[in-house]
Design brief:
Strand content: under 5%
Number of helices: 11
Number of domains: 1
Mean pLDDT: 82
Shape: globular
Structural class: mainly alpha
Radius of gyration: 28 Å
CATH architecture: Up-down Bundle
Number of strands: 0
Helix content: 55-70%
Length: about 300
């Protein structure tokens, strides 16, 4: 007869682990059963239901928004090809107010850039952790220098140094909004190609006297930011500062196009001088946003129909 094979000791079932797995499966089953077509949850596990509903809502939201964003990008860039080259109009350098005061030519157009220096310096002094924030306030600060340099002697050569820092700020602004509204990593990555495209647009203008790409660099971030604000939830308080900045920038462009008309009223300040002040005020509104913003907690921004998770 064969020898008896010693029996292996039977492993003791980990009842606690089994119970944990059973409870987890039961929660998932209850969750799936409880989530109806309208997203309502059963009361069996509200915290899990809340997390799943939040994740599902964000995932559904991201796909169409990304599609719209890249669609806008492709259409706007494609539209540039259809446009004829846009040369720099030399009459642009002929501003309404050309008075020399205290030996400074175009006095008010020069000194009205001082607020950019103040806002940029305040931002750089306080906010140094995020590259996009640093680039934005650095661009604001350098705008005060570059614009003053240009208005001292307006010509195409000095205009390059006026537009360069503004281009840095436009690129950084788009990256900042992507960081805060969409994804921090995506915004950090976007910053560098946006800066490269901005610099290339200015070099292309100087090489070929064609402003098409520069105009796109100036206006596309505004359209993209508006889209992101409409389709994504805020992560921080202070959205009204962004709205104020947008209104002030639009007002600045209106002043720019009404340079001579405004100056002809009382021959005191021109539209271009007021443009500088309004644009600097827009930058100040963004500075105040960073100074006062607070993180919005999830319970205060939960999707409709989902109960808040229990503590």
């Amino acid at each position: 007869m064969p020898k008896d094979v010693p029996s292996q000791p039977r492993r003791k079932r980990d009842s606690s682990n089994f119970g944990h797995r059973f409870r987890g499966s039961h929660q998932i089953f209850s969750l799936r059963r409880g989530l109806g077509h309208e997203g309502e949850c059963s009361s069996a596990s509200p915290s899990l239901c809340y997390s799943l509903g939040m994740t599902r809502g964000i995932a559904k939201q991201n796909l169409p928004v990304v599609g719209v964003f890249f669609g806008l990008l492709a259409v706007s860039l494609g539209g540039l090809v259809l446009l004829p080259p846009i040369p720099q109009d030399q009459s642009y350098h002929q501003f309404a107010d050309q008075r020399t005061i205290f030996g400074i030519p175009n006095f008010w157009n020069v000194v009205s850039n001082l607020p950019f220096l103040a806002v940029g310096a305040a931002g750089l002094r306080r906010f140094r952790d995020d590259p996009a924030t640093v680039v934005f306030f650095l661009g604001v600060f350098l705008t005060g220098i570059g614009s003053s340099y240009y208005h001292w002697d307006p010509n195409d050569g000095t205009l390059f140094w006026d537009r360069l820092p503004m281009t840095l700020s436009f690129a950084a602004l788009l990256a900042l909004v992507v960081e805060e509204r969409v994804n921090a990593r995506a915004g950090a990555i976007l910053l560098w190609p946006a800066l490269a495209i901005g610099l290339f647009s200015l070099l292309l203008w100087r090489w070929n006297d064609d402003l098409r790409l520069y105009f796109w660099v100036q206006f596309f971030p505004g359209l993209a930011v508006l889209l992101l604000f409409l389709l994504y939830q805020a992560k921080y308080t202070g959205t009204h500062y962004w709205i104020a900045a947008g209104v002030l920038y639009a007002l600045a462009k209106l002043f720019e196009f009404s340079d001579g008309a405004i100056y002809s009223v009382r021959n005191f300040l021109s539209g271009h001088t007021l443009k500088h002040l309004a644009a600097a005020a827009a930058c100040f509104a963004i500075l105040r946003y960073f100074q006062t913003r607070r993180l919005i907690t999830w319970p205060s921004a939960r999707p409709v129909g989902l109960p808040p998770p229990k503590a």
